[in-house]
Amino acid sequence: MGSLVGLRVLVTGGTSGIGSGIVEHLRAEGASVAFTGRSHRRGSTLGQATGAAFVAADLSDSAAIRDMVEEAVDSLGGLDGLVLSAGVLHRARLSETSDDEWDKIIDLNVVAPFLVTRACLRHLHASGGAIVTIASGTALWPEMELGAYSVSKRALLSMTQMLAVESAHHGVRVNAVCPGDTAAGMSALVNGGGPRDHGPPVMPPAGRLATPADAASAVAFLLSPDSAFCSGAVLAVDGAMRAALRAHRVRG
Amino acid sequence: MGGRTALVTGGTSGIGRAIVEHLSGAGMQLAFTGRDVGRGTEVAAATGATFLQADATDRGRCDESIDEALAALGGRLDLFVSNAGLVFAAPLEETPEAVYRELLEVNLTAAFRYSRACLRVMRAQGRGSIVHIVSDAAIRGIHHIPVYTISKTGLLAMSEVLAAEAAPHGVRVNAVCPGATVPGVQSTIAGYDHHAEDASTWGPAPSGRHGSGTDIAEAVLWLASGAAEHVSGATLRIDGAASAAMRAIARA
């Protein structure tokens, strides 16, 4: 039992990747957790393993989002923390991104976090709680092969900071975690199926990929009283991947 | 720039109108879009540019306007200026879902869709220039207009990603970020008339004045010219130092 005993937290996109790592970590630190996800099977498995409450939700439907939030808050008995981890990845250049793919990325990565937040705000105002958004390293420095995804995560980062300003007088803190390439990270792809093989990843200067636990411990810090004056902050968890432009050498 | 061709979105008022006037004055052959037929006809008569009625929320009409622009411009497109935009002033907490979606559609998605189509044309030509009219809000964030800030922040990322993608094809993509400009963004969401930007609520920049449409149009002209041949992926703030350093005086 750790630093989050007594905190009641809702995690979106908690059934896989970074999100499930967050659910596990928050539970290990003593928080009460409800989490959403698309897969009932993974949701019930993780729920049984961790004691967190799985709430099924379709985050593309605003009415369903309101119902999901009320169900989660009822099961938790209130809300002290919201972690917006649900998202969708799409590997494509902008010129190769269709309207349908673009719309799904914007809907799930930019509109859904807004809708979930809106539904949670009054509960968080009541508790003086905290919001953590899971943005991405691509929000800090976009990637050409993740065109629309980078755009959506940059917009999500902006939403985080706008919310931080307008929520501050309610005592609600809003911060962003920007994970770099994460082993067993994003599994939700716009075009369906599992992650595609794009060859070996470019390693960050730290020499390894991030793990879901790396992002999860940053989230725990930003939910805890240890970060009481952190709001509107952007925390890169990327092993220095985006700390500098690393020149592309052709020789030597 | 004599004889060069350009398409400008949102050319019937504000900064867009100044761009149409300025580029026409420099001898370019122009087509421009806008919602208002009366204003569009007036600008067309004054400048000799071709007016194409199109609402940025109407994807089908936007697609047609690109074909019509190419027909009017003799099948060649040297410059695309993505300028059409909407503003909305309210905290996120009070922002209706429909408004959130519409600002993303106009300020981000329409800009993406036009840019994608224009890049296709320019790649075939082996040259071309795209300029996105973004905003100071995309760099520092303006919390009075959070949805606008989120959409413009995404747009700036989009401009950068597209620049990386377009560069090997001889196409340059740059972003211009105006500060408070008179006349600036005149358009808001239908049914929310009181949210149109009112320059009187903004203090002047440290330079002692607001920006003008001509300030922005001059930069667009330069970015489109051969003098800017190695300028791509750039963000050019034109705001009289308004966002250069934090000032204690906020918007009224």
Question: Any chance you could write out the topology, listing elements then pairs?
Answer:
The complex is a heterodimer of chains A (252) and B (252).
Chain A: E1 8-12, H1 17-28, E2 32-37, H2 40-50, E3 53-56, H3 62-76, E4 81-84, H4 99-127, E5 130-134, H5 137-140, H6 147-167, E6 173-179, H7 212-223, E7 234-237
Parallel strand pairs in A: 1-2, 1-4, 2-3, 4-5, 5-6, 6-7
Helix pairs in contact in A: 1-7, 3-4, 4-6
Chain B: E1 5-8, H1 14-25, E2 29-34, H2 37-47, E3 50-53, H3 59-72, E4 79-82, H4 97-125, E5 128-133, H5 137-140, H6 146-166, E6 171-178, E7 181-182, E8 211-212, H7 213-224, E9 235-238
Parallel strand pairs in B: 1-2, 1-4, 2-3, 4-5, 5-6, 6-9, 7-8
Helix pairs in contact in B: 1-7, 3-4, 4-6
Report what the structure shows.
The complex is a heterodimer of chains A (252) and B (252). Helix content of chain A is 41%, strand content 14%. Chain A has 252 residues and is an alpha/beta fold. Chain A has one domain (8-195, 206-237): 3-Layer(aba) Sandwich (Rossmann fold), CATH 3.40.50.720. In chain A, helix 3 packs parallel to helix 4 (99-127) and helix 4 packs parallel to helix 6. Chain B has one domain (5-238): Rossmann fold. Chain B has helices at 14-25, 37-47, 59-72, 97-125, 137-140, 146-166, 213-224, and strands at 5-8, 29-34, 50-53, 79-82, 128-133, 171-178, 181-182, 211-212, 235-238. In chain B, helix 1 (14-25) crosses helix 7. Chains A and B meet through helix 4 and helix 6 of A and helix 4 and helix 6 of B.
